[in-house]
Amino acid sequence: MSTPEHTASAPQPQSQSAAAAVRADNQDPSLFGQTPWQTVGPFFHFGLPWNGCADLTGPSQMGGRADLMPTGFAALRGPERRDAAAPVGERIQISGHVFDGRGRPVPDALLEIWQANASGCYRGSGFAGQGPASIDQGFFGFGRAATAEDGSFCFRTIRPGRVHFTSSGGALQAPHIALGVLGRGLLKRLMTRIYFDDEPSSAEDAILRLVPEHRRATLMAQRIDAAAGGAVPGSDPSAHYRFDVRLQGERETVFFDY
Amino acid sequence: MGTIQTVNAQLSNAGADFRREDGAQPPSLFAPYASTVERAPHEPLLRIPQTPTEQSGPNEWEALFGEQVTDLTCTRGAPAQGQRIIVCGQVLDEDRRPVANTLIEMWQANAAGRYAHERDQWDAPLDPNFSGAGRVLTDAQGRYRYTTVRPGAYPWGNHYNAWRPAHIHLSLMGPAFATRLVTQMYFPDDPLIEIDPIANAVPRAYRQRMVAHFDINITQPSYALGYRFDIVLRGRAATPLRAQT
Fold first, then answer.
1. pLDDT tens, residue by residue, B88-118
2. Residue ranges for chain A with pLDDT beneath 70
């Protein structure tokens, strides 16, 4: 008929729809459509993070902000994971800071990640994948981290495997992690990806090649070597990466529309 | 119409792209909401195709997040202070297909407009019996329901004499990372909505999509007022079959 997007007629102004209102819901044809985004605001810490939400590899306290709960209050409880299997794959740590347009740390951002397991499979809906055998019972692939007062965050996870470019197969993407940034002052989520600077396949990744070359570095997590105070050989996690998010201005992170 | 919906339902997991934002979505930069000025990106967003990364999402909610909390008024022993309300509705996609088994997380201020949060400096009392956070799963028809108290309005520092309208923060993932939604539910007949910079970042014609409806049929006698709030997530783009109709 016509293009699939943006063809629905705009809803009528409030006064007109109110005059014709017979429905007590949000499904009135004059109103129906995507619910708009709104900011998470500065006070999401008791509602969204749970204990251990930034550690995708096992039970821990990473990711929340217990220091922001008033005396006698606590964040929502997380899941019981006492008998959870350990995830398969190489444990990695990704840490960094979130900065605003003036280079100041952002102390009230929330980062969300979504990634494939070590064999390149997503666990959840919308992924046909390679069948149940490819699912890692010890790994969900979703995590959250609230930034600290200095704007820092830290995820512990598994190095993701390569995922096909389309649901029907075809070329493989370079290992990557989808990242959403929410926070006070962010009316809607900012979406980006974390790639790895020591991963040779990044050079041929179809999504990265859409990014202007001079901005690609903003999507690359940098391996921190032991001499720089990062990973100690043989330690767990074995590889540490640094990834900063710059919301605005110089070296601004590339954010996607999809 | 019914036939089209049936066909679309059969194709719902076929890997079709999710539709992009419609005109209801706010811009990243909206200067009347002062915090956007130094946090909104300057560069335009880079449009990329959706891959399995964007088209998949977590769905084993209780194992991942923990147990549901569907009555926020009695999580801490004694009943919470304030006007008890029931909020229920349906989560749908843009083709009015129910979004089943999806997690809704909610958090809010208490009846006096105070958050259980160290950074909230508003001089209103904390309610020791109200933490203000919950989570609920939709059923097979996309329906959800929770009980809470009506949150109070509260002042904030955005501009002189600024007050946020009463609202409940809502977070939904939907079927995929691409369909993520965080919004705020407002209450009908609240005069503060019209002058709130955060609500006003949404163009006026679409603002009512964020306003709940009072519903006497949800209201329970001698117990709680009822509000209906349906939530619409991004749907699948038109399929070839749909385009022929």
1. 999 999 999 999 999 999 999 999 999 999 9
2. 1-25, 82, 129-133, 226-235
Q: Quick one: CA torsion of B216, B220, B225, B228, rounded to 10 degrees?
A: -60
- The pLDDT score that the predictor gives to residue B114 is 98
For A73-89, how does the pLDDT look when each residue is reduced to its tens digit (9 = 90+)? 988 888 887 677 899 99
Which chain A residue shows the shortest CA-CA distance from B32?
Answer: A185
A43 contacts B117? CB cut-off 8 A: yes
CA dihedral of residues A257, A258, B5, B6 (deg, nearest 10): -170
Cβ-contact B144, B138 below 8 angstroms = yes
Residue whose pair of structure tokens reads 């009980």 in the numeric block: B147
CA A105 to chain centroid, in Å, comes to 19
Rounded Cα distance, A129 and A168, in Å: 9
- The full length of chain B comes to 245
Please report the ipTM that was assigned to this predicted complex.
Answer: 0.92
Position B225 pLDDT exceeds 80 = yes
Distance between B150 CA and the closest CA of chain A, angstroms: 17
The radius of gyration computed from the CA coordinates of chain A, to the nearest angstrom, equals 21
Predicted pLDDT of residue B239 = 57
Largest CA distance in chain B: 60
Cβ separation A34–B177 shorter than 8 A: no
Our CA-based measurement puts residue B227 at a distance from the nearest CA of chain A, in whole angstroms, of: 9
CB contact under 8 A, A26 and B23: no
The enclosing H or E element of B8 equals: helix B2-10
Cross-strand partners of B236: B18
The vertex-B138 CA angle with A24 and B70, nearest 5°, equals 90
Rounded average pLDDT over B178-186: 98
SS3 of residue A100 by DSSP? coil
Residues 6+ apart with CB under 8 A from A2: none
Of B66, B213, B233, the CB nearest to A77: B66
